[in-house]
Amino acid sequence: MTKLPNNIPDCMVFLLAKAFQKAHANFKKQLTPYGLTNLQHLVLEGLWYEQGMTATQLGKSLILDKATLSGILGRMLNGGWIKKKPNKNDKRQLSIYTSQKADALKKNLIKERQNANDDILKTFSTEEKILFKRFLTDVINAE
Question: Which of 109, 100, 107 is nearest to 41 (CA)?
Answer without folding.
Answer: 109
